[in-house]
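Figure 6 in text form: structure in, sequence out.
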């Protein structure tokens, strides 16, 4: 690789690190509480602004992803990689009905004028949640690691994987504070990012955990 390629990789790693730190800070309850206290009238639009900022700040990546190709999937490997990627996309689509899309985007908070810093939905467990606690993180990992790799993509995959690990821990700290022992029991039974055949719960067990969590949070 040329000196320019190495310089772009360094810029890319610094970008991802900055992006993750800022993203995690803005998603934290500490920052949200301070924002709600200082700008209560604007709090209903915090989530929407957060999402727009997260998307816009990804645009610089378009200038940093041109780097030497490391490997491509061929033959049976390509069929397997693309099949896994397609399965992940179908998993995303199938899981959408279990999420409140407007709340996730931040639109519902604006419509309702909600000023609560906590923006997670009521505790619920979709079919995918019975096998992995963070199904969208898992599906994202499948998608990114089944693509052809250049140096920039490989670095980004590594950085995103680290962020999913750290980010899931930070997110679960908030969920434990909200749902307590019910969520802790769920964590004990179901893996975080990678499904394991011997660690999952039945539909009945999921319903019992959800009922217990909602009862405790009243």
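Output sequence:
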């Amino acid at each position: 690789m040329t000196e320019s390629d190495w310089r772009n990789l360094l810029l890319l790693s610094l970008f991802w690190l900055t992006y993750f730190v800022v993203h995690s800070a803005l998603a934290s309850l500490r920052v949200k509480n301070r924002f709600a206290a200082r700008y209560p009238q604007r709090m209903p639009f915090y989530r929407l602004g957060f999402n727009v900022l997260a998307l816009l700040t990804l645009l610089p990546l378009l200038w940093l992803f041109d780097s030497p190709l490391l490997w491509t999937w061929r033959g049976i490997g390509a069929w397997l990689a693309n099949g896994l990627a397609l399965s992940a996309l179908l998993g995303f689509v199938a899981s959408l009905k279990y999420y409140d899309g407007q709340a996730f985007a931040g639109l519902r908070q604006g419509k309702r004028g909600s000023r609560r810093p906590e923006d997670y939905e009521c505790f619920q467990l979709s079919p995918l949640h019975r096998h992995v606690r963070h199904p969208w993180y898992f599906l994202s990992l499948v998608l990114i690691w089944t693509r052809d790799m250049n140096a920039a993509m490989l670095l980004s995959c590594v950085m995103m994987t680290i962020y999913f690990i750290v980010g899931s821990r930070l997110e679960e700290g908030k969920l434990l504070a909200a749902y307590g022992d019910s969520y802790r029991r769920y964590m004990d039974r179901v893996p975080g990012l990678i499904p394991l055949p011997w660690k999952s719960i039945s539909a009945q067990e999921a319903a019992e955990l959800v009922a217990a969590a909602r009862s405790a949070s009243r």
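Caption detail: The CA atoms of residues 95 and 213 lie 21 Å apart.
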